[in-house]
């Protein structure tokens, strides 16, 4: 069963000094913390703040490439957890075909 989530917040795990993105289900109270790197945390923070830049950031470039190739991101699925590592799939539609790309959840959120 897929559960829709949104980014609730970014935090810092004080015990490890590692950024954490907190995802919250849209129709409930459960949260999912995912420990991420500082670069991804910065990218997510900039998106949450609706910051705009004169030049595209890496995540903006990926979106532009997808659009330029006629594709559209449909959704992101956090597909599994293995040894404390989260895995995600980008679900992309192009010319009526749907395919998935392996991705890190933190990059997918940003």
TrEMBL record:
Annotated BFN domain residues: 2-110
One MF annotation (Gene Ontology) recorded for this entry: nuclease activity
PROSITE patterns: BFN
Protein's name according to its UniProt entry: BFN domain-containing protein
Organism: marine metagenome
